[in-house]
Amino acid sequence: MLLFAHTGITLGLVLAWDKGLGRPFPSLLKKVTPEKITAVAQSIDYRLVLAGSMLPDIIDKPIGHLFFAETLDNNGRIFAHTLLFFLLLLMYGLFRFFKYGKNGFLVVALCSGFHLILDEMWFNTTTLFWPLRGWDFPDSDLADLEDWLSLVRETAQTEPVVYISETIGLVILLTFAFKLWKNEKMLHFLKRGTV
To answer: pTM higher than 0.90, yes or no?
Structure first.
């Protein structure tokens, strides 16, 4: 998946949950009431949704394609594309959520998890279950950054799963931006992340 699919589809899923399902929460700790949890959950920062949806690529692409391209065999799906990374983010997010009533890391963690799903990481179990399946990441077929960019361009044009999901993501993003602009909430969104 590429930029529009990750950001748009993740944004759409979070919006559907946030605006459509009412978010019933059970209390996991006695001092945290369902009302407090619902109040925190209602204040989702959608800037974090967008950042979290791309976080694995934001971390892994520069490391794998630019800084350590020869060491990591130009692989752009490494540390942040692992289940370990997701679980560490999720545990810290849950800790902050229940201890301090802050949901930022939890939102980032869950959106990073959506990224792994959209990347179909279950097909790459060596990376997904790193380091349980060994310390090395799989070899990449790419020679350099230019090779990666040409593969991205070709995939976006020839594989229906990619260009259909990119189109869906782009439509969601454009609809979201249009509604913000129409309701004169674009500046509010940029400053506070709420809709």
So the answer is: no
